[in-house]
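BACKBONE STRUCTURE TOKENS:
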Amino acid sequence: MFEPSPERLRAALGRFATGVTIVTARAADGAPVGLTANSFNSVSLQPPLVLWSLALSSRALPVFQTATHFAIHVLGAQQQALAERFARRDVDRWAGVAWTPGAGGAPLLPQALAVFECRCRSRYPEGDHIILVGEVLRCQHGDATPALLYHGGRFHTGPVA
């Protein structure tokens, strides 16, 4: 066993396959904000709670620190390009992307495998991230389309080897 340097810890965590999400909210001026995240978990069924975490270095942090609502979109294998787009910093993530307002105005993206419309219930700063807990107000899911996965620092649209 070794001490967990940031590089070693990232490599070890990368061995755990996760789903891929896009989390969206509205800025104070009404502009849509969204980013790709794979730090999504269920917390409780009663009450219905989910969580995700955001790096304190994220440019979206000010929006999510004050947003009353957010939406979490679980992506399908066919949405890898969208996940890559919302992970980049050097593009207009919303150019040409259709969306509709959901609970509290949070942008809803079409064709996600599942969507969780949440009221932000609590925020916990921990280490270099903030953990956001959302109370699920509405949720929906589609068919059994394969999920987009993230493993070993890469997206996967089929079985993870």
